[in-house]
Design brief:
Immunoglobulin-like, disordered N terminus, alpha/beta, Rossmann fold, globular, 3 domains, 715 residues, 21 helices, TIM Barrel
Length: 715
C-alpha cells in the first residue's frame, strides 16, 4: 500500500506486521523508537536549512522512531515542494540508517489547515468552527487538511484539540470547539473521521483537564472532581476514541496536584481501561523534563522517565535533549525501574502506528502540490460569523459612505491568530513569510454594491481618521487580539488593548454609527459605554485565509450570520466560570451573562415548534419543526437541552445534548430529527469522595428546543 494513500491499514494486520519486527530490535533500538527528535537535529546549523551531509550518522546514533517540527519551524524553502522533498529525504535516511530499515514517522501541528506552510489554505480556528455547529463542515475541513498534508509527505497531525474550553482567559481557548462537552464531542469525532479518512493520523489532545487551568493560566493545575471529569472533560475524548483516533497527547498541566505525564490513573487506568484507547500515547513538548524543572515532583531524569513511561507515555516528544532522555530510559530499564515488557509495549505501539499509516510498506511519495481550498475556507469562515448587536438595523450596509479602520482591517496576523506560519502567529519568530489572505478592508472595497463607496484609513492617522469619520454614513472598525499561542496568549483581563478601546471611544464620539468587527479567540469584555452605543457588533473569531471576503458578504447582506456562540459570554470578569451547564447553587442565584451559549442574530427570524421525543434503542429521538419566519434565507440553529431527574448531586438546570439545524428559505418550514445517545442523558452518580458510576437515572426527562418542550420517562 502506498504511504498515506487514503485508507488506513487494519489494526489487526498492522499489529501483526509490528509484532514480526519487534524481536529484531535491540534495547537501544527500542529506546530510539519511543523517542521523538526535532527535524532540526538533521539540518545545517540546527535551523531552517538544508539537511546536513552527515545526517545519516545522527540517524544511526539516535535511531528515532518519530520526528517533529516546532510550531513554525520549517525547511528551506518553506514551500509545498520544499516540504515534500525535505520529508522524503528524511524518510529515506531513516530507512537506510534506522534499525530494521524503519522510517521515522513525522508529526506536526496542523491545527487549522497545514498552518506552518505559507502557501497552504488556513481555516477558522476551532472556536469558530464550534460556532458553526456543523460537524459535517468540520469534517470537510479535516479532509482538505489531510489532502494537503499527504501532498507534503506529512502523515500525523497533533489535532484535533479535544479539550473543553471552560476559562476564556486561557491562551489556548480558541483551539477548543467551545464549552459544551457533547457539542465539542461531535466536532472532535468529525475531525478525527475527516483526517483519518484521508490517511492522516489524528491526535486527541490534551488528555485531560487542560481546559480548566487555575486562574486561566496555561499549563496550570486543574482541580476537577470525578463527576466533572466524567461529565465535562471526558466526552470529547471518548467520542474521538470511538471515531478511531490513532493517537492521544497527554496534558502538559496537572490535575488535582498530580502532573498528568506522571499519572498512571489518568493515562492508563482511565484512558486505556475505562475509555478503551488502544493507540499511541505521546507526550507534549519536553514534558518529562518538566517533572524535574517545573513541577519538582521528581529528582532526576531517570526517575522522571520511569514515572512517565510507567504511567503510560509511549513516545517522548524530546526535541532538545534526545541523548539525555535515551540514557535515562536505558538506565531505568537496566535497573528495573521500567520493565522490558513495558518498553516492548510502547515500541509495539509505535510500530503498529507506522504500519497503520502504511509507512512500513513504501517510501513517501507526496506530490508537493496543494489543492486550491479557498472556496472551502470562505464557506467555513462564513458559517462561523456571529452577529451580536444590530439595534437600529445598520446592517446590512446597502448604501452610503463607509469608512473602514482598525488594526484588524488589513492584518493577516490578527485574522489568522496563533499557529499560523509561526507558533505565535504571522510576523513572529523565525519565519518571516506572510501568506496571501483576503482581509476585510480590501474585500469591502472590491465588492461594494452599487451606491456604496468605501474608504479606509489606519487608526494611526487619528486626525484624518476622525475627520473622515464625521463625513461617513457608517464606520466599520475591525479590532482584535494580537496573535499568540499557549501561555503567551493568556488574556487575564479578557480585554482589548487600551489603544483599541480609545479608538472605539474616539469613533463613537463622532456621532457616526459604528459597527465593530471583533477578531478574537475568546469573548472579550467591552466597557459599558462602548458596548451600549455600538450600532453593530460582529464576532468573527479567527476566521482564516478567507475571513475578510466572508465578512464583506455578510456585512453587505449577500449572506447572513449563521454562527451562534459556542460559549457563554460573561458581562464581567466575575462571571468567568458561568457556563451554560453550571448548576444552581448557594442561594439559588443564577447570574445572567451578557450573551448565552447559542446566542446570535441574523437578517431573518426563526422559530422551533412541535417538539416531540420518543425512546429509541440507543437513546432518544427528538424532532421539531424549524421555520424561517423572516424575509431572508438563513440558517436556523436551535439548541436541544435536557433536564434530568434528581441524582443526589448538583446538576445543571438543563444540559445541552444536541443541535437542530436547517438552511431555510423565507417562510419555509422543515421537520428536523436527531437521536440523542443514552450517555448524553446519563449522570455520574456518587458522593463527594469515593467511587462513582454512569447511570441512566429512572424518572422524567424534559427536552426543550426553542419554543418546544416535551417530556418522557426513562429508562
Amino acid at each position: 500500500m502506498a504511504a498515506h494513500a487514503g485508507a488506513l491499514t487494519d489494526q489487526a494486520a498492522a499489529e501483526a506486521q509490528a509484532r514480526a519486527i519487534l524481536p529484531r530490535l535491540t534495547l537501544d533500538d527500542k529506546i530510539g523508537q519511543v523517542s521523538m527528535a526535532h527535524v532540526f537535529r538533521f539540518t545545517e546549523g540546527g535551523r531552517s536549512a538544508p539537511i546536513r551531509a552527515d545526517a545519516d550518522a545522527t540517524f544511526r546514533t539516535l535511531r528515532p522512531g518519530t520526528l517533529l517540527n516546532g510550531g513554525g519551524d520549517a525547511p528551506q524553502p518553506n514551500t509545498p515542494r520544499g516540504w515534500a522533498d525535505f520529508l522524503a529525504r528524511l524518510d529515506a535516511l531513516g530507512r537506510a540508517n534506522n534499525p530494521a530499515n524503519l522510517p521515522a514517522v513525522f508529526g506536526t501541528d496542523a491545527v487549522h489547515g497545514v498552518n506552518n506552510v505559507p502557501a497552504a489554505t488556513l481555516y477558522p480556528h476551532n472556536l469558530g468552527l464550534g460556532a458553526a455547529f456543523d460537524p459535517a463542515l468540520t469534517r470537510e475541513v479535516a479532509v482538505a487538511t489531510a489532502a494537503d498534508m499527504r501532498a507534503m509527505n506529512m502523515g500525523w497531525t497533533f489535532a484535533p484539540v479535544a479539550d473543553v474550553g471552560r476559562d476564556p482567559r486561557w491562551g489556548r481557548y480558541y483551539e477548543t470547539f467551545g464549552e459544551s462537552p457533547w457539542l465539542v464531542a461531535d466536532q472532535v469525532a468529525a475531525a478525527v473521521d475527516g483526517l483519518q479518512s484521508g490517511g492522516v493520523a489524528a491526535t486527541l489532545k490534551h488528555f485531560t483537564g487542560y481546559g480548566l487551568p487555575s486562574l486561566g493560566l496555561d499549563r496550570a493545575n486543574a482541580e476537577i472532581s470525578a463527576r466533572a471529569l466524567h461529565e465535562v472533560f471526558l466526552p470529547p475524548f471518548r467520542a474521538g476514541i470511538r471515531a478511531g483516533a490513532l493517537s492521544v497527547m497527554a496534558n502538559s498541566g496537572s490535575v488535582n496536584g498530580v502532573p498528568v505525564h506522571a499519572s498512571r490513573t489518568l493515562l492508563t487506568d482511565l484512558l486505556r481501561g475505562e475509555l478503551g484507547f488502544q493507540g499511541l500515547l505521546v507526550s507534549d513538548w519536553n514534558d518529562i523534563e518538566r517533572l524535574i524543572t517545573t513541577y519538582r515532583t521528581h529528582t532526576d531524569l531517570v526517575r522522571a522517565a520511569a514515572a512517565s513511561v510507567n504511567a503510560g507515555i509511549d513516545v517522548y516528544m524530546v526535541p532538545n535533549s534526545v541523548e539525555a532522555y535515551q540514557n535515562a530510559l536505558r538506565e531505568a530499564v537496566q535497573t528495573g525501574l521500567v520493565s522490558e515488557a513495558r518498553l516492548d509495549e510502547a515500541t509495539l505501539r509505535v510500530l503498529t502506528f507506522k504500519a497503520r499509516l502504511g509507512l512500513l510498506d513504501a517510501p513517501l511519495a507526496g506530490s508537493g502540490v496543494l489543492n486550491d481550498h479557498r472556496d472551502l475556507a470562505r464557506r467555513a469562515a462564513a458559517a462561523t460569523l456571529t452577529l451580536l448587536e444590530n439595534p437600529a438595523d445598520t446592517l446590512p450596509i446597502r448604501r452610503g459612505r463607509v469608512l473602514v479602520t482598525g488594526p484588524a482591517m488589513d492584518s493577516a496576523a490578527i485574522q489568522l491568530g496563533g499557529w499560523s506560519v509561526n507558533w505565535q502567529g504571522v510576523g513572529k519568530g523565525n519565519v518571516p513569510d506572510v501568506p496571501k489572505v483576503a482581509t476585510l478592508a480590501p474585500a469591502l472595497k472590491a465588492t461594494a454594491p452599487a451606491g456604496v463607496t468605501v474608504s479606509a484609513l489606519p487608526e494611526t492617522k487619528r486626525p484624518q481618521l476622525l475627520t473622515a469619520a464625521k463625513g461617513a454614513d457608517v464606520i466599520v472598525v475591525a479590532v482584535g487580539e494580537a496573535p499568540g499561542a499557549e501561555w503567551q496568549a493568556n488574556n487575564p483581563a479578557l480585554s482589548l488593548p487600551d489603544g483599541q478601546i480609545t479608538l472605539l471611544r474616539d469613533l463613537l464620539a463622532t456621532g457616526t454609527p459604528v459597527v465593530a468587527v471583533l477578531m478574537a479567540g475568546r469573548p472579550l469584555i467591552l466597557p459599558t459605554d462602548i458596548q451600549s452605543r455600538l450600532s453593530g457588533l460582529v464576532m468573527a473569531y479567527l476566521p482564516g485565509t478567507q475571513g475578510g471576503a466572508a465578512l464583506a458578504d455578510a456585512l453587505y447582506g449577500r449572506a447572513g450570520f449563521p454562527g451562534r456562540l459556542p460559549f457563554t459570554w460573561p458581562d464581567s470578569l466575575t462571571q468567568v466560570g458561568l457556563w451554560s451547564d453550571r448548576p444552581a447553587e448557594g442561594a439559588g442565584e443564577t447570574p445572567l451573562p451578557l450573551y448565552p451559549l447559542g446566542y446570535g442574530l441574523d437578517y431573518t427570524t426563526s422559530v422551533a415548534r412541535d417538539l416531540t421525543v420518543t425512546p429509541a434503542p440507543d437513546g432518544v429521538t427528538a424532532q421539531a419543526t424549524l421555520t424561517n419566519t423572516g424575509e431572508k434565507a438563513g440558517t436556523v440553529t436551535v439548541l436541544l437541552r435536557a433536564s434530568l431527574p434528581a441524582s443526589g448531586a448538583l446538576q445543571a438546570t438543563s444540559r445541552l445534548v444536541g443541535v437542530l439545524r436547517a438552511v431555510l428559505k423565507p417562510g419555509e418550514s422543515r421537520a428536523v430529527q436527531i437521536t440523542v445517545p443514552r450517555d448524553r442523558l446519563s449522570s455520574w452518580v456518587g458522593d463527594a469522595y469515593g467511587p462513582g458510576t454512569w447511570q441512566l437515572l429512572p424518572g422524567q426527562y424534559t427536552l426543550s428546543a426553542g419554543d418546544g418542550k416535551a417530556t418522557l420517562s426513562l429508562p
